[in-house]
Design goal:
Blueprint (H helix, E strand, L loop, with lengths): L4 E6 L10 H15 L3 E7 L12 E2 L7 E4 L2 E4 L1 E7 L4 E7 L22 H19 L5 E5 L6 H6 L12 E6 L12 H5 L17 H11 L2 E4 L6 H9 L4 E2 L7 H15 L6
Parallel strand pairs: 1-2, 1-8, 2-7, 8-9, 9-10, 10-11
Antiparallel strand pairs: 3-6, 4-5, 6-7
């Protein structure tokens, strides 16, 4: 049987950031999936509050050096890597002096204010991951997105990257968390996110930029969805309950790893990826 490959893209992973439901899931799940016999790769942003020396991060020169153009401005892409030794798991970090050097994740540490450029940071992170995976030449069967900062990944996989040999057969799974923010992202998010291969109809769901709206947009364009928090925003709960695609309900710790692994297998079996 073919050994399936799962690409994890997460907004937060512990121990690099404080433990939250999202960061813990993004730490435990890749390890469990790897131990179940699948291949994995894991990515997160290199927020400025992550101590590079203590976490022994180092730049991967062969993967760095690309420029990504967002809103007519060039932004150099830097790739770093670290290891979670107990899990025998590597984590790739998307870094940028323009977007990820400040001491905060999505809010300013000093003022608590939501960063005005979180829309561009999300675009840079999504495109940075996909361009890096292309450079690695690693073909994922499943791309599992965790956290609203990954919400543009499903869009790009289904449009601009849909004919790329690395991603053309990948199935996108989007996990919905209760990690809301109060202020909408920039109203021009959809315009800034445009790339070759994206039509206005593709990006129409991203015209509204509240936490609820961008999660709905990601759910709509993904191949499958997961309720990752036991309680999510009521509008997202309703959307999840009524969406017509493969979905996995909230899982407790006891069933967490196996339920996800089986869910991946169900998705891949439905499209003939897993074969004897």
């Amino acid at each position: 049987m073919k050994k399936s490959r799962v690409l994890f893209i997460s907004q937060e992973i512990t121990p690099y950031l404080d433990e939250t439901e999202l960061s813990k899931n993004s730490r435990v799940l890749p390890q469990g999936i790897q131990e179940s016999g699948k291949e994995i790769r894991t990515f997160m942003p290199k927020f400025g509050c992550i101590n590079e020396r203590r976490n022994q991060l180092h730049e991967v020169i062969r993967l760095s050096g690309m420029n990504l153009i967002i809103n007519d401005t060039d932004h150099p892409l830097i790739i770093k890597v670290g290891s979670i030794q107990p899990a025998r798991m590597q984590v790739y970090f998307i870094d940028s002096d323009d977007f990820f050097s400040r001491k905060g994740t999505v809010n300013c540490r000093e003022t608590g204010k939501f960063f005005e450029d979180n829309d561009e940071r999300a675009i840079f992170f999504a495109r940075g991951v996909l361009e890096t995976v292309k450079k690695l030449g690693w073909v994922p069967d499943i791309i599992h997105c965790h956290g609203w900062m990954t919400s543009l990944v499903p869009l790009y996989i289904k449009t601009s990257y849909s004919k790329d040999p690395i991603f053309e057969k990948s199935k996108v799974v989007y996990s919905v968390y209760d990690n809301s923010f109060d202020k909408p992202l920039c109203k021009n998010l959809a315009d800034k996110a445009m790339m070759d291969g994206i039509q206005n109809s593709d990006i129409s769901d991203y015209k509204k930029t509240s936490f609820v709206d961008i999660n709905k947009a990601a759910m709509n364009i993904s191949d499958a969805v997961i309720q990752a928090s036991e309680k999510i925003h009521p509008e997202l709960q309703s959307h999840f309950d009524n969406i017509n695609k493969p979905k996995l309900n909230f899982q407790d710790a006891e069933s967490f790893i196996k339920a996800h692994s089986d869910f991946y297998d169900e998705i891949l079996e439905s499209v003939g990826v897993l074969q004897d």
